[in-house]
Amino acid sequence: MAQNPRKKPNILITGTPGVGKTTTSSLLADATQLRHINIGELVKQNNLYDGWDEDFHCHVINEDLVCDELEDMMEEGGNIVDYHGCDFFPQRWFDRVVVLQTNNSVLYDRLSNRGYMGTKLSNNIECEIFQVLLEEAKTSYPEEIVIALQSDSVDDISRNVGMLTDWLRNWQPAS
Ligand code: DAT
């Protein structure tokens, strides 16, 4: 048993860019009053990066700094963490890890609309085809807390948010 069990659950929403992590997390935060932590935004706001990746046009995040920044909030509980990676967070932080997944052609259109092209676009589509985030989640967390949810349509978002809201409301702290 943890020495200081949290009173509220922490949930990680992960998946390839474009699958709907931020949309889902934001609606879930509205429904549950939990805190939505968008790691990409946190990294930018607090300069938690080591440089800029020219190939992928994104910051190279400093994972240690990100974890230091999050530690107190995660210990307190009540967080929805939204990020396209999951293997560098301490396993003990999360009560549930949700991997959102999207049909490849739907994802292609979403990422093109976002302005992704070339290597960045093809790498992300490959990442989805090969279920990289699902594998990463399964190797980083206990199998029983990892779930994959389809996120192709607005109906999928509503169903996922409803299901996760029920789960979060019914969560009980470890006694
Ligand atoms: P992520 O945070 O995973 O990068 P997002 O929440 O920013 O993704 O969504 C990217 C875009 O796709 C945004 O315009 C909203 C849209 N979208 C996401 N999930 C969707 C879904 N299940 N149905 C329809 N549109 C969706």
From TrEMBL:
An annotated Gene Ontology molecular function: AMP kinase activity
HAMAP family in the cross-refs: Adenylate_kinase_AK6
EC number: 2.7.4.3
Renumbered residue ranges of the record's region NMPbind: 38-61
First-listed, main subcellular location of the protein, grouped into a coarse class: cytoplasm
Family: Belongs to the adenylate kinase family. AK6 subfamily.
Family matches, as Pfam families: AAA_18
Residue segments, region LID: 113-123
GO biological process: ribosomal small subunit biogenesis; rRNA processing
Positions of ATP binding: 18, 20-23, 114
Superkingdom to which the source organism belongs: Eukaryota
InterPro entries referenced in this protein's UniProt entry, alphabetically: Adenyl_kinase_AK6, P-loop_NTPase
Keywords for the protein's UniProt record, in alphabetical order: ATP-binding, Cytoplasm, Kinase, Nucleotide-binding, Nucleus, Ribosome biogenesis, rRNA processing, Transferase
Quaternary structure, from the entry: Interacts with small ribosomal subunit protein uS11. Not a structural component of 43S pre-ribosomes, but transiently interacts with them by binding to uS11.
GO cellular component, one term: cytoplasm
Lineage start: Eukaryota, Viridiplantae, Streptophyta, Embryophyta, Tracheophyta
Catalytic function, reaction form: ATP + H2O = ADP + phosphate + H(+); AMP + ATP = 2 ADP
Protein name: Adenylate kinase isoenzyme 6 homolog
Subcellular location: Cytoplasm; Nucleus
Record's keyword annotation contains Membrane: no
Function: Broad-specificity nucleoside monophosphate (NMP) kinase that catalyzes the reversible transfer of the terminal phosphate group between nucleoside triphosphates and monophosphates. Has also ATPase activity. Involved in the late cytoplasmic maturation steps of the 40S ribosomal particles, specifically 18S rRNA maturation. While NMP activity is not required for ribosome maturation, ATPase activity is. Associates transiently with small ribosomal subunit protein uS11. ATP hydrolysis breaks the interaction with uS11.
